[in-house]
Amino acid sequence: MKQLKYLVPNLFTGLSLLSALAAIYYIANSEFILTPWLIMFSMLCDFLDGKLARILNSVTPYGTMFDTLSDFVAFGIVPAFLVYQISLNRIPYIGVIVAVFFVFSGCYRLIRFTLRKKDNNNKSSFIGLPIPIAAGFIAASALVSLNTWNQIPDHNVFLIIVFALGVLMSSKIEYLAFEPDSLQRTDIKLLILIFLASLILTLKHSYIVILFWITAYILFCLIRHITLIIRNRNIEINLNSKNDKKKIQDNQI
């Protein structure tokens, strides 16, 4: 029974990896409609394995490494392969470079997250766009395109999207985490309120709502990051001004 608590989280990690492998099979056979949903299923499994591991107090080095490798396949290789096959392959060389850039950025993001998690117990935020969110954005974009317009947008659009996602994963921008210790924050409460209000739309237009929410999350954290930079600079300027005035007064004395 004791071993079961270690098995359950790894079971969901394994399901995420199996879903990713199935997605690779479908992409290779040019069956693109199901693949985005498999990516999203992997996202759900990735969310559950971490939650269950913490609830059951069964976090282990093996589980952490297994989760990282699974995420690399499911959210790094699969979305890059998908977007290359449906769009970026129309742009020789540049399409390959951008797809590979996304994979390497995702790998860098995963390694940085794993190392930071060992040294820092703060669960209220992430540094850099989480790779499942980046993969989810690509999956939802593909679904919206295929289901709404019955075609993929111009390859230049996806080129910009994939490159931008790679940059955001590699960046030092802070992204909010929906953990129990952060749910009291005003910014988190606002996002949760809007999320609950949009649930009714999910029943009919799930892929559109998913794309909307991922976009809103990315933009919200970007604006928040810029606001914090401006606020910190203003505080620093005020402090320097006060210090200069104090020095002048001391010299006069």
Describe the fold and architecture.
It is a single chain. This protein has 253 residues and is mainly α. It has one domain (4-185): Four Helix Bundle (Hemerythrin (Met), subunit A). The chain is 78% helix and 2% strand. It has 9 helices and 2 strands, in the order H-H-H-H-E-H-H-E-H-H-H. The protein has helices spanning 4-28, 34-55, 61-86, 94-119, 131-149, 155-170, 186-197, 199-202, 206-252, and strands at residues 125-127, 174-176. Strands 1-2 form a two-stranded antiparallel sheet. Helix 3 runs antiparallel to helix 4. The longest helix has 47 residues, at 206-252. It is globular. The N and C termini lie far apart (76 Å). The mean pLDDT is 80.
Quickly describe the structure.
With 253 residues, the protein is mostly helical. Helix content is 78%, strand content 2%.
Low-pLDDT residue intervals, each spanning 5 or more residues: none
As a percent range, the share of strand residues is under 5%
Range of helix content: over 70%
SSE class = mainly alpha
Structure summary, number of beta strands: 2
What's the structural domain tally? 1
- Per CATH, the superfamily is CDP-alcohol phosphotransferase transmembrane (TM) domain
> What is the end-to-end distance?
76 Å
**CATH hierarchy class name:** Mainly Alpha
Radius of gyration: 21 Å
CATH topology, anyone? Four Helix Bundle (Hemerythrin (Met), subunit A)
Order of SSEs: HHHHEHHEHHH
